[in-house]
Structures are given as C-alpha cells and as structure tokens.
Amino acid sequence: MSVAHASVALEHTGFAIGTENGFKLFQLHPLHFRMYKNFVPDVGPVRIVKHMGLSNRVVYVSALGGKFAQNNVLIFDMEFNRNKTEITTPSRYGAVTNVHVSHNRLVVFTANRMFVYEFPENIKQIRAEDIRNNPRGISAMSYEPSTSACYIAYPGFDTGTVQIMNLNTLTTRESKSPVVIKAHETEIAQVALNCQGTLVATGSTKGTVIRVFDARTKGLLYELRRGTVPAHLACLAFSPCSCYLALASDKGTLHLFGIRDAEPQKKKGLIDVGTSSILKIQLDRKVLALGFSKQTAKSFHGLVAICSDATYWRYHFSKDSNGKYIAMQPYFEQLIDFADEASFFRIPTE
C-alpha cells in the first residue's frame, strides 16, 4: 500500500500518514502506533493529513472520489472516533491544496487563497487573503509553545519571494503587512520555518541551492549547496533545536546541513557550518516528510524520513574521532505492517 501524504507534527513528537484507507498516527521516536484504542477510523481515502503533536485532533482532506468534497477540511476527534467539525471553503477557490495546524491556529490553502481560523475550540474564520498562484500548496508553519508565537510562510506575489505572516496579529478587520524576502530568481519550490519562526529556509525550482534567512531582518545567513545538477526538492525541515536543516530531493539523497540561529547567544554553540552538507545519506525512495528525534542518554540525534512506499527510516548521526559526521545503521519499519501488528498485539482476545 502506498502513502499519499505524510506530515510531521510541529513539535517533532509524531507523524501522520494518509492512505487509500484513511489515516494513521505514529509517535516519531521511539516508533509507536498512536491510534486511540488502536481503532483506524473509516474516513475513506485521504490526501492531506495533519495533527497537533500528542493531541487527539486530526485535520484531514479526502482524496478525489473520497467521502468528502475537495474543498472540505475535516477535524477528527480520536477520543470519540468521529469527525467533530467540518470547514468548507468557497467552491469558487477550488480544492484545498494544504493545511497547517498549531495549538492556536488552523490555516487552509487553496491555489489562490489562504484562510486562517481560530483553533481548536470555537473554530471560526479570522481572515482570508489572496495569494500568488500556488497549486502545490507550498507553505510552512512554525509554533513556539512557550510564547504561542505562530507564523506561516508561503510564496510571495513576485517570483522567487517568500512571505512570512504573524498569525497572532491577524484580526477580522485587518492584517499587518507580511515580511517579504527576495530569496531566488526562480519560483519557490520548498520553504521551511524553525519552531521559533526566526529562521526561514527556501529552495527554488532549480533545486541546487538552499538559502537560510533571518525572518526578522530579512538578512541572508547561509547559502547551502545541495549539488550542481538541478533537482526537484521534496522536503525541507529544521530540527527543533534549529541546529540542523534536512533536505530530500528526487536524486535519492538526504542532505543534512549544520546551521545556527542568528541570536548572539546561539553563536557560542559548537556546530559545523558550511556551504555543503555535513552528511549525505543515500535513500532511493520518494520522501514525503522529514523529522528529527532528540538526542538522549541512550541515543544520538536522529533524522527520520517517511516515504511514499509506507516505509520509516531513522538515521542516528554523530561525529567520529576525527570530527566527521557519520550516520549509523538505519532503523527501518514498514508502517502498514507495523500498525497492523501493533493492533493485533494490543487488542485483547476473548
């Protein structure tokens, strides 16, 4: 069975996959099947699915020919095993292309429109904004739990620009002008925000260079080279600590870059920074989502890749005695089988 969509929670605590049979939730590390009472909801085929960390709320969009219209966004409550709320965007704006969810905001994209809602209680629309034609729903959200700061980044109206909007300053009456950064000469292909919303990474349709900007000053901090041959950028993700940036492309390689925040106190940290990746991992699969597992007393930092063939790959990485980054033998799971086995062993038999 193939996976149509995969997403990692903003906190990097878990991830969700959408398939022709619905959606499934997992803990990122250690890998655990995370469905309430191990029950997989009967929601039909799913093409977009997002969730809020360890919350019971799941946001999804049906696949074409599924149970719900393409301009409907469903909020599913795992505790009660049912759809709790349904949001319908005006049909004149076409199908939903992406959704993002945090602990205080829900953002829905169509090709030419962005809708922002209060979330998760008393869901209501705060604002709707016209955007540049964005049929792939290219966008990224950040959320800082300690301050509730929430930002959204998406392609700007001018070619190669990215806009960053503070979602907490939006009201039904007005919205402050977003930060606009000229990032590339060609169209934006991927964008990522760190969890604080202070760093934004962008890649263009050329796919050879990734640029990292200070989201507050718009200053270019790092220019990171993926390669010299053009490529389609599949995923781009910051680590929760903002020390690393991961990239997946259609060239079958995962790239890990060492970066650091522009804050003065962060500059004291020991982290390798350069124009090329500190680690390259061969993975000849279509990567749908990237995430990071935290370093613990028993394990090093880990890079997680969720692929379209329903496989989960985790690579722990560290430095060797010469100071060179190395990736250890990967941990691998087939997610569909893993979930089925988890359900089998956890559901008591009479």
What does this structure look like?
- This protein is mainly beta and 350 residues long.
- The protein has a single domain (3-339), classed as YVTN repeat-like/Quinoprotein amine dehydrogenase (Methylamine Dehydrogenase, Chain H, 7 Propeller), CATH 2.130.10.10.
- It has 1 helix and 29 strands.
- Strands 25, 26, 27, 28 and 29 form a 5-stranded antiparallel sheet that branches. Strands 1-2-3-4 form a 4-stranded antiparallel sheet. A 4-stranded antiparallel sheet has the order 5-6-7-8, with no helix packed on it.
- The protein is globular and about 55 Å long.
- The protein starts with a strand and ends with a helix.
- Mean pLDDT is 89; it is low at 261-271 and 345-350.
How many separate domains? 1
CATH architecture assignment name: 7 Propeller
Helix segment count? Answer: 1
According to CATH, the homologous superfamily is: YVTN repeat-like/Quinoprotein amine dehydrogenase
**Major sheet characteristics:** 5 strands, antiparallel
Strand fraction equals over 45%
Silhouette: globular
CATH fold label: Methylamine Dehydrogenase, Chain H
Round the Cα radius of gyration to an integer and report it: 20 Å
Percent helix among the residues? under 10%
CATH class wording: Mainly Beta
Poorly predicted residue ranges: 261-271, 345-350
Structural class: mainly beta
The arrangement of helices and strands along the chain is EEEEEEEEEEEEEEEEEEEEEEEEEEEEEH
Distance between the termini: 30 Å
What is the residue-mean pLDDT, rounded to a whole number?
Answer: 89
